[in-house]
Amino acid sequence: xxxxxxxxxxxxxxxxxxxxxxxxxxxxxxxxxxxxxxxxxxxxxxxxxxxxxxxxxxxxxxxxxxxxxxxxxxxxxxxxxxxxxxxxxxxxxxxxxxxxxxxxxxxxxxxxxxxxxxxxxxxxxxxxxxxxxxxxxxxxxxxxxxxxxxxxxxxxxxxxxxxxxxxxxxxxxxxxxxxxxxxxxxxxxxxxxxxxxxxxxxxxxxxxxxxxxxxxxxxxxxxxxxxxxxxxxxxxxxxxxxxxxxxxxxxxxxxxxxxxxxxxxxxxxxxxxxxxxxxxxxxxxxxxxxxxxxxxxxxxxxxxxxxxxxxxxxxxxxxxxxxxxxxxxxxxxxxxxxxxxxxxxxxxxxxxxxxxxxxxxxxxxxxxxxxxxxxxxxxxxxxxxxxxxxxxxxxxxxxxxxxxxxxxxxxxxxxxxxxxxxxxxxxxxxxxxxxxxxxxxxxxxxxxxxxxxxxxxxxxxxxxxxx
Amino acid sequence: xxxxxxxxxxxxxxxxxxxxxxxxxxxxxxxxxxxxxxxxxxxxxxxxxxxxxxxxxxxxxxxxxxxxxxxxxxxxxxxxxxxxxxxxxxxxxxxxxxxxxxxxxxxxxxxxxxxxxxxxxxxxxxxxxxxxxxxxxxxxxxxxxxxxxxxxxxxxxxxxxxxxxxxxxxxxxxxxxxxxxxxxxxxxxxxxxxxxxxxxxxxxxxxxxxxxxxxxxxxxxxxxxxxxxxxxxxxxxxxxxxxxxxxxxxxxxxxxxxxxxx
Lengths: 467, 262
Fold this sequence. Notes:
Order of helices and strands of chain B: EHHEHHEHHEHEHHEHHEHEH
Largest interface: A-B, 70 and 77 residues
Largest sheet of chain A: 6 strands, parallel
Number of strands of chain A: 12
Strand content of chain A: 5-15%
Strand content of chain B: 5-15%
CATH topology of the domain at 43-297 in chain A: Rossmann fold
Structural class of chain A: alpha/beta
Shape of chain B: globular
Shape of chain A: elongated
Distance between the termini of chain B: 40 Å
Distance between the termini of chain A: 67 Å
CATH architecture of the domain at 43-297 in chain A: 3-Layer(aba) Sandwich
Helix content of chain A: 40-55%
Largest sheet of chain B: 4 strands, parallel
Radius of gyration of chain B: 18 Å
Number of strands of chain B: 8
Oligomer: heterodimer
Number of helices of chain A: 24
Strand order of the largest sheet of chain B: 2-1-3-4
CATH class of the largest domain in chain B: Alpha Beta
Number of domains of chain B: 2
């Protein structure tokens, strides 16, 4: 996926005026947050589970090496293979090698954001292997040559009409705008692909160290067909997904479903433990797990360590008023919203992603809904500090801040400045009591009036009264 | 009535926006504190809480301003301000210093003494002896920092319930950000505008004729939008209503006398 994060402001401007996108985003707002609230209402212990999950995640991150080695040992014991991928490139090469070893022409894919992160589809296509997305949302996006705009509802930016057109164009069948018909059509198309695929690639929501199992949590069942039917199953996931035990995993499952979609439990929770055994009815002959690092291990012990707790539920973006206004594509890379504004600078560099951690009012809604209590505003602020210390923030902003700071640190001079500004604003406002056009503050007055000061400054009036 | 010796010694954190734009909020805060049994002083060495620097990643300036504020309020039993946002910033001061730094302890002590006005009256003083009257239907915007960092939600409503002749119509999404966000509103003006448009639609739909809130930054933003859109809704800080100081025209509504400007 091309990096478009430096164009965040332009992307956002276009998105704000995109009528269809705004309609689609309206559905999101009415959907996930309402359902989440209802699910939590029914679970009084939700907040204590969040505390438990946060502590458990912290423990895992502090012992990440141990749990990952235990996971590898147990995958191997079950007859599977673990591959360590430091970079996106390593991950893609590893997967292509496996595909070539088994002579794969087509691979089916379950939904995986890590595969988006490493740009797997483009890599496979460029090397003669055809990936077929089987998650309905991802399938629609693949037909359209599009990318996910949300981490669990990838096609949330589309409306029904877009699906109608995409299916008509690619399936060559009559147009239908009946969701049931469209669903059936996708099923029929995908069924052949499932059977024909040589390799199935899925992600993993969690990797269980004690058993060497991976789990996918889905609502469509496509993931099960993807990983059961082909002879080879490749799991692509990232190192922070490891959990010590099955019991631990269930804690996260409970939080994940409620935080994400407001379900008490996701429909399909499918564990994969090694390849097919002699007495198994089905399953792949080969089982591989590709564990992607991609900068994550550097986050351990850094000011961004808390971000590794993320379980990719999407609650932060579902509740974010900025995401809700501009949609996921505006962020210009794989992970949008508040969690993306912390992860993206780590993965593509703050030089390219600097606008993202700045695109927040720090309203704190994201942190307040996060099931593992990640202090997202604080982490975004750390990126702003990084940007500031590297002199990457815009010159005008730096000068403005510097000038303001000079006065703010000198109370007597500050009084003179505020007195002057107070007079100037009142003169400009005249009898209206507000300024409609303010030089250097067009960002404000293009859209709203600037209420004028109601009289002399507080400090002036207070001083007069004290006399 | 408490004797002078027993009265709480409160330092008023005016906030830079109240100082510059709406002094009556500062005076209303003093009036409320005094009627609740406090002696109020206003240290002249305070300026701004430092949030613009803190949220822009300028840690050095944040530290300088934090030290200045800590010194300004040394010796006060409590520090109270008419803003959840600025008081939240005071609560962030300990993060600026290493735990071994003596300033860390001073910052932590300040944090323990610093309160937003409605929370101080309700949670600390258990005061609800509000004698004001206000003819109108109000709706209340929960500003983000006060709500999520300081837990200010019920306190303003408890106090407003004591105001004679005032009724409260809650708007939809009263807890959703208005789009002000300090420098955010000028760095991302069109996104900020969309957020305040959503907010003004919710305010309008509430049927209220008065919008109240506890943070002047948010109130300037919402008043600026409502006035630009031509709404007649009056916008005021909650302390103006609680202190019975509503003679002054509402925010952005003024007919100030130009002659008095200088």
